[in-house]
Amino acid sequence: MNQQLRMTKQRAAVAGALDATDEFRSAQQLHEQLRDRGDAVGLATVYRTLQALAAGGEVDVLRTDDGEALYRRCARTEHHHHLVCRSCGRAVEIDGPTVESWAASVGASQGFTEIEHTVELWGTCADCRASATAG
Amino acid sequence: MNQQLRMTKQRAAVAGALDATDEFRSAQQLHEQLRDRGDAVGLATVYRTLQALAAGGEVDVLRTDDGEALYRRCARTEHHHHLVCRSCGRAVEIDGPTVESWAASVGASQGFTEIEHTVELWGTCADCRASATAG
DNA sequence: TCGCTCTTTGACATCGGTTCTCACCAGGCC
DNA sequence: GGCCTGGTGAGAACCGATGTCAAAGAGCGA
């Protein structure tokens, strides 16, 4: 967490919850999880903390199809993409060097500048597929 | 528009507004645009119509960073991606054959199934850059 | 053209995620 | 410990999107 922010137990709790999983979680899920665990933190604080972490590049954010924001603490802070399980939220960090160069060249060839790209892969992880088959 | 739906003037107006532009537009923008033009259509109807068009694959949908849905009538119905101007919404349809195969192979190598991918490029188009520089 | 039926419409209520407000609380520093 | 300032949290507000339901109208057969 950033050093110009005061380290409060609420921020530590949110950061800790993120550190403890490799799954993308919504603010509401994290809030509920902290409450269940006894580390009650206000919902507004969860949102503020996630926002601060995201602004500092310490968590990655993505949006579900219906617009909800999901957060995840990634091992690396450099640019990367994700393969996310649409059922449990588990994610794998992936690289796409060919995608990077493709995006840059396509953008430039169309006269666009300041190109950014959104590349996320969604699937069903092996565990979720197994339990779906079993159930 | 789908033939098992009744063709009403409201639906025609929404479809017409989409046909008249190559920019991604939000439901609210379309609603306002129709009202300004005199073709007043209820907001709920705009949403419903866009939903129906999207379900039939007749318009493409994407989400802005803050979760708002944007709609665009694309020339082709086959799978493709977009290079979108983050300022005016103008979009260019693009192909990424290498991205397609990369996505599929990465997904499979991690044991994920039913892989889908989200690939959108964002930039500033030449016109918007020019007016930004001028202003 | 006239009615009938059944979908569609639209004003409004509601929902769900997110952000704002503001009085109170508590780190960090002396 | 005391002060100052940023952080917290309960609830309100906000905003995009969806649900409700009575009234309107498209399509069809007569």
Number of strands of chain A: 6
CATH class of the largest domain in chain A: Mainly Alpha
Report low-confidence residues of chain A grouped into runs of 5 or more: none
Give the mean pLDDT of chain A: 94
Report the CATH superfamily of the largest domain in chain A.
Answer: Winged helix-like DNA-binding domain superfamily/Winged helix DNA-binding domain
Q: What is the 3D shape of chain A?
A: globular
Largest interface: A-B, 34 and 34 residues
**Strand portion of chain A, in percent?**
15-25%
Helices of chain A, by number, come to: 5
Helix/strand-derived category of chain A reads alpha+beta
The overall number of domains of chain A is 2
Global Rg of chain A:
17 Å
State the assembly state of the protein chains.
Answer: homodimer
Task: Report on the architecture of this protein.
- The structure is a homodimer of 135-residue chains.
- By secondary structure, the first copy, chain A, is an alpha+beta fold.
- In chain A, the strands form two sheets. A three-stranded antiparallel β-sheet of chain A has the order 1-3-2. The first copy, chain A, has a three-stranded mixed β-sheet with strand order 5-4-6.
- Chain A is built from five helices and six strands; from the N terminus they run αβααββββαβα.
- Chains A and B meet through α4 and β6 of A and α4 and β6 of B.
- Chain A binds a DNA duplex (30 and 30 nucleotides) through α3.
